[in-house]
Write a structure and sequence with these properties.
Blueprint (H helix, E strand, L loop, with lengths): L1 E4 L4 H26 L2 E9 L4 E8 L13 E8 L10 E4 L5 E3 L5 E6 L5 E5 L6 E4 L5 E5 L4 H4 L2 E4 L2 E4 L7 E5 H5 L17 E5 L8 E5 L12 E4 L2 E2 L30 E7 L2 H4 L10 E6 L6 E15 L8 H14 L8 H7 L5 H5 L3 E13 L3 E13 L6 E14 L4 E15 L14 H7 L28 H7 L1 E20 L2 E22 L8 E26 L3 E24 L16 E2 L3 E20 L3 E12 L8 E12 L4 H4 L4 E15 L11 E4 L5 E4 L2 E8 L10 E14 L4 E13 L2 E5 L8 E5 L2 E17 L2 E18 L6 E5 L11 E5 L8 E3 L2 E4 L3 H7 L10 E3 L10 H4 L1 E4 L5 E11 L2 E11 L2 E4 L2 H4 L39 E3 L2 E12 L9 E15 L20 E2 L6 E11 L1
Parallel strand pairs: 1-2, 4-10, 16-19, 51-55
Antiparallel strand pairs: 2-3, 4-7, 5-6, 5-8, 8-9, 11-12, 13-18, 14-15, 16-17, 18-19, 20-21, 20-56, 21-22, 22-23, 23-24, 24-25, 25-26, 26-27, 27-28, 28-29, 28-30, 30-31, 31-32, 32-33, 33-37, 34-36, 35-36, 37-38, 38-41, 39-40, 41-42, 42-49, 43-44, 45-48, 46-47, 49-50, 50-53, 51-52, 53-54, 54-56
């Protein structure tokens, strides 16, 4: 029997077909191994690509080892609630590994020993059924749908909703998805798990920054992260402080979600389209992430103890020159510069391999995590009380992350109508960092940059075992030993955080409920740094110390009324109305000092410094008041309508625009319940969704609409009175009373369907997301005394397609499930408010023109953050070539040759620079496979990005510099190698941003492979026990030449992406896990 499915989407088919073909072929092989020979039942052909997917029918069964002594055969048939055969049902003899699976017609045959046994029948989406056989040899079983699964509830804004009734685009993960990997923060758990949610690691340091984007970049200057809501409490997810810190200015900035242990989480829902997010109004343009923590369950008393220990190692080391090769390069450089050789030939030969600075600095680093939780309760009171501890050292010495956490969640039914409860998360985190993702000419030394510059001819340590001072050796002037930074530089971030919510839910009457919630997010963040006497980071002073203190208090109150009514089992109505209030206050203190008598005091006593700096302090607060409403209407369980509206009043914005309205509407049609579809017998579910809505982005500075005052003691802004300088106050900026939030309008079209008794589920969404009124600094006349004013202007577009696939490939004794998601997004700047372009990605330094100090250019018609610079054409081979071409007359042989793009005969950056690459991927994806065989479980997870570029700024140091350490320098230009493709040892022209630094950043990361064994019951006190081994970040398939293509040294910047600026290398982790339940 052959069925042909014609597919009009040829490109998508060509992409998916190989994946599905392999999956179905692998399915056949595994089923053959697990349950005996198979024969073809049906063949489906997708004509656009010739894909053939066989559905397999068993014709026999391979005898089980435990059933070699066969006393009898039990056979029968398994059907569903409509008496239709159920294929693939798992049938197992309870307490053994003897089992089989039902055939395509629902029949089964099982060999077992004589005597009564219990057969367990299980199938996804149906209630498991146990049958005691007695002396029977024929058993027919009818499985019923799992009502709880059919009524699966997901968390949405200010409430819950049955999954089947969703009209918006919502992705979710569960605690099971979170527990399979070694992660420190809940946002990392989303990586590669939900289509349309791009989670990008900015820094691989312990506790390093994470960037999360939902459906692309929707802003240039306002925040780009989604709104996080924990147990109904919107939390503050911005950076710790506006103060610039050496550890926190770039990609190594601490992650604000570090305070939350992922093991405390029950589920995470990501609201993606405007229908789902508009209920959060002015904060929802970047999506909303709803985090629900674990809670106690009635009639249970559980004790859970989890242990995870492991060791990390650098996943990759770059190929470097050895000491002899580097010394030859150094001598070559001296000759080209007209100087005597630095080393004699005897010294060069004696160097040998010399110092491997990567081996000297990188270390094996332990990681350990423990959790103890007590949960359960009765019908009226339920509890969960737990504690957790995480300790992770970094592969760079001196870096680490520690977290101590406590969770207390209580729910009490005071009466039949009143329920109260609370959620409490308290944590203390200590994060030690070392300088990475920066560059020395900014006054901030950098460990990775130091590794790239350290001569392999110099021993790492002196005779006392201390780090050598590189400045005391040839060619070591101005260099810092990377071991000095890792062992003597001190950067510590300490955070105390309390996130708490209390609620009361009162049933006023049947169908009418009042919910009142009060929450607080209180965070106390301290930063300490000390750079020792004589270090580069101390800028020549006798030590530098600094302390920053930040306190953030975020208070929220939400009050909602919900009315639910069903009429004649046809009309279902749910109406929500509410009022919310949020107030946030931030205080900052910053103090530093130079010139310490000894390094022993570090940052503990700033008063000992001989040159204390003027301290700074800051305080700001803002308020948000909102009214919201939502209507859910369902007719005949087939036609669904959702409409919502929210009015926000925000103190951040101008007097003329403090309030905004954010509406949305969504429709859904359960096509699968229509007779003309149901009678086809193809779809278990078929639903069409469409939505439209408007959301906003208010993530800007608190007082940007007002005119702020500045003060100064400087000679330009002070005057003499009574013989002393008197500070003055002056306006810092021009106010804008019309300032408002950015506005995003989004259209979404979605399709959900399930096939083969729900063994294959697919969700497809297409969206069009346009943002207007971008918040941009617009240039103004200098006669005003200012250079720019913040206005709502400009526009941006994101459009794309998301696909999510869940399949149960095998449901017998051998179980195999697959989750695959892929998202395509196209980003385009439509307008910059009249400006033709803007530069971004400041790198500073060097004798170059101002625009050379930027790495990217924003321009209408292009994507955000596209790299901009010169085209690298190799090196000048000879003086004759330089004269003949004439575009760079000042160059000398061996210098970098840049392309004269406009053909005017002269190379210059203003007219010859072009767009070089796009840091935004064409698509990102994730693939998860779970296999289960008896007590064994295998989990394999991988994710990746395709079509994006990375700007490898580190090449300026290790490749293009005349003393670069990269092994690629062996192919440098020299008088004896005029065809070398890299600059000569004596090259002197500026190392501008150019195409040689832009690399293909596509990658496939094999993130997790974990094998778990369920230990058989060995004590009445132990309910369950599991032990497992795993490896995280096993391998990365990529063309990128740096340590890792997934990073951004500029953190979560909207406009500066994909920058490798001496970033922290990634680590591979080997671990052992133990889970005990009592």
């Amino acid at each position: 029997m052959k069925k042909t499915i014609r597919n009009p989407h040829g490109d998508l088919t060509r992409f998916l077909c190989p994946v599905l073909s392999i999956a179905f072929l692998f399915q056949g092989a595994l089923e053959t191994y697990a349950a005996g020979p198979v024969e073809r039942l049906e063949t489906y052909t997708i004509s656009a690509s010739g894909l053939v997917m066989p559905l397999l029918k068993r014709s026999g069964k391979k005898p089980d080892k435990e059933a070699k002594s066969v006393d009898r055969t039990i056979s029968g048939k398994v059907t569903d609630e409509n008496d239709q055969p159920l294929p693939g049902v798992s049938i197992v003899v309870k307490g053994s590994t003897i089992g089989t699976a039902s055939k395509a017609d629902g029949t089964f045959s099982l060999n077992t020993k004589e005597g009564s046994v219990t057969l367990v029948f299980s199938f996804m989406g149906y209630v498991a059924h146990e049958v005691a056989t007695g002396n029977k040899t024929s058993i027919d079983v009818k499985l019923l749908p799992n009502a709880e699964q059919l009524k699966e509830v997901v968390v949405v804004g200010y409430g819950t909703q049955q999954k089947k009734d969703l009209t918006g685009s919502v992705g979710s993960i569960s605690a099971k998805d979170i527990e399979t990997s070694t992660i420190n923060t809940p946002d990392k758990a989303l990586q590669g798990k939900i289509a349309g949610v791009q989670v990008h690691t900015n820094s691989h340091a312990p506790g390093g920054g994470i960037a999360v984007q939902v459906r692309g970049t929707a802003s240039l200057s306002a925040g780009g992260s989604p709104l996080y809501v924990i147990d109904g409490m919107p939390i503050s997810s911005g950076t710790q402080t506006s103060a610039s810190t050496d550890a926190g200015s770039f990609g190594g900035a601490p992650n604000p979600l570090n305070s939350i242990d992922p093991s405390d989480i029950e589920s995470v829902q990501v609201l993606k389209d405007a229908s789902a997010t508009a209920i959060y109004g002015s904060r929802a343009a970047n999506g909303v992430v709803l985090i629900s923590t674990k809670r106690g369950k009635a009639n249970q008393h559980n004790v859970d103890f989890d242990i995870s220990v492991g060791v990390q190692q650098a996943r990759r080391k770059l190929p470097f020159l050895n000491a002899e090769q580097w010394a030859q390069q150094a001598n070559e450089r001296s000759t080209l510069l007209g100087r005597p050789p630095t080393y004699t030939q005897a010294q060069v030969a004696a160097f040998g391999k010399g110092t491997d600075w990567q081996n000297e600095v990188f270390q094996a680093a332990p990681r350990q995590a423990y959790k103890l939780a007590f949960s359960g309760g009765g019908q009226n009171l339920r509890y969960l009380i737990g504690g957790n501890y995480t300790n992770q050292n970094g592969i760079l010495p001196g870096s680490s992350f520690k977290r101590y956490g406590t969770t207390i969640n209580l729910d009490a039914d005071v009466s039949k109508r009143l329920r109260i409860g609370e959620s409490l998360l308290f944590s203390v985190t200590d994060q030690y960092t070392v300088p990475t993702d920066t560059k020395g000419y900014e006054g901030i030394s950098n460990v990775i940059n130091a590794i790239y510059q350290a001569p392999p001819t110099i021993p790492a340590r002196d005779s006392l075992g201390l780090p050598n001072n590189l400045r005391n050796f040839p060619l070591g002037s101005g260099l810092e030993n990377p071991l000095t930074m890792t062992e003597q530089y001190k950067q510590l971030s300490n955070t105390l955080r309390l996130i708490g919510t209390a609620y009361a839910n009162y049933n006023i009457m049947d169908g009418l409920d009042l919910d009142i919630r009060v929450g607080a997010d209180i965070r106390d963040w301290r930063y300490h740094e000390y750079y020792p006497i004589g270090s580069e980071a101390a800028a020549g002073a006798s030590g530098k110390a600094r302390q920053i203190a930040v306190r953030n208090i975020n208070i929220t109150n939400a009050n909602t009324l919900t009315y639910t009514k069903t009429i004649n089992n046809l009309h279902k109505l749910k109406v929500l109305g509410g009022f919310t209030y949020q107030r946030e206050k931030n205080e900052t203190m910053d103090a530093s000092s130079f010139g310490f008598p000894s390094d022993v005091f570090q940052y503990y006593n700033l008063g000992l410094g001989s040159s204390p700096q003027t301290p700074g302090s800051n305080q700001n607060e803002w308020t948000l008041i909102s009214y919201l409403g939502r209507v859910n209407y369902t007719f005949n369980d087939k036609y669904l309508l959702t409409a919502s509206i929210r009015a926000d009043g925000d103190s951040k914005f101008g007097a003329n625009n403090k309030y905004g309205i954010f509406p949305s509407v969504a429709l859904a049609w359960q096509l699968g319940d229509e007779p003309f579809i149901r009678n086809l017998g193809v779809f278990d579910l078929l639903k069409l969704r469409t939505s439209f809505g408007r959301t906003g982005n208010e993530s800007i500075g608190v007082y940007r609409s007002l005119s702020l005052l500045g003060t100064s003691f400087g000679t330009r802004s002070s005057y003499i009175f009574g013989g002393s300088k008197v500070p003055i106050a002056y306006p810092n900026n021009i106010p804008n009373p019309d300032l408002s939030w950015e506005k995003t309008q989004e259209y979404n079209l979605g399709l959900d369907f399930s096939l083969f008794k729900n063994r294959l589920s697919v969700s497809v969404d297409a969206y069009y997301k346009k943002t207007t009124d971008l918040l941009l600094d617009v240039p103004i006349s200098s006669q005003t005394g200012f250079s720019s004013v913040l206005k709502n202007t400009g526009a941006m577009l994101n459009k794309g397609i998301e696909i999510g696939v869940n399949s149960t490939n095998l449901a017998g004794k051998l179980g195999w499930t697959t989750n695959f998601n892929i998202a395509f997004n196209r980003n385009e700047i439509l307008s910059l408010g009249g400006a033709p372009y803007q530069y971004t990605g400041w790198v500073g330094g060097g004798n170059v023109t101002p625009h050379d100090k930027n790495t990217a250019r924003l321009e209408p018609g292009h994507s955000v953050g596209e790299f901009y610079g010169s085209i690298y054409e190799g090196v000048w081979k000879s003086t004759e070539e330089i004269k003949q071409v004439g575009t760079m007359p000042a160059a000398k042989p061996g210098d970098i040759r840049y392309k004269d793009v406009n053909g005017d005969g002269t190379y210059n950056t203003e007219s010859d620079d072009v767009f070089l690459g796009n840091p935004n991927p064409k698509f990102n994806f994730g693939l998860t496979n779970d296999l289960n065989y008896g007590p064994l479980s295998l989990h394999v997870f991988m994710y990746g990005e395709y079509g994006n570029s990375v700007l490898n700024l580190a090449k300026q140091q290790w490749l293009l510099d005349g003393l670069g350490v990269s092994a690629m320098r062996l192919d440098r230009w020299s008088p004896t190698n005029p065809n070398g493709i890299y600059p000569g040892a004596g090259a002197s022209n500026p190392q501008r941003v150019s195409s040689i630094m832009v690399e293909d950043g596509s990658f496939l990361r094999i993130q997790t492979i974990a094998l778990t064994y369920k230990i058989p019951s060995f004590s009445k006190f132990v309910k369950n026990a599991r032990i497992g081994i795993g490896v995280d970040n096993l391998a990365v398939l990529t063309k990128y030449t740096g340590y890792d293509p997934e990073l951004n040294s500029y953190g979560s910047s909207n406009t500066t992406k994909g920058m490798d600026r001496y970033g922290y290398p990634s680590a591979r982790t080997f671990r052992l896990d133990l889970k005990l339940g009592f």
